[in-house]
Amino acid sequence: MERSRQLQHLEQAERHVLRGEQNVSDREQRIEDLENHGYDVTLARELLETFLRTQAQFVTHRDLILRELDHA
C-alpha cells in the first residue's frame, strides 16, 4: 500500500483510538454515578467490557499501521 494511503489509515485509526478512549471514560463515569445512586450496574459493566475489547482492537490496528509505516 502506498505511504500516503497508510498515513490516511493511520489518521483514521488515531481518531478511533481517541474516540474510544473518550467512550470508555464516559462509560466509567456513568457507571460510577449509577453505583453512587444505588443502581444495578451489571449490564453497564458488560457494555463497558465490550467497549474495552473494541478499544483494544482499535489500538492493535493503529499499532499495526505504525509498524507497516516503520518498515516501508
TrEMBL record:
Domain of life from the UniProt record: Bacteria
Annotated Basic and acidic residues bias: 11-24
Chain spans, region Disordered: 1-24
Protein name: Uncharacterized protein
Organism: Bradyrhizobium arachidis
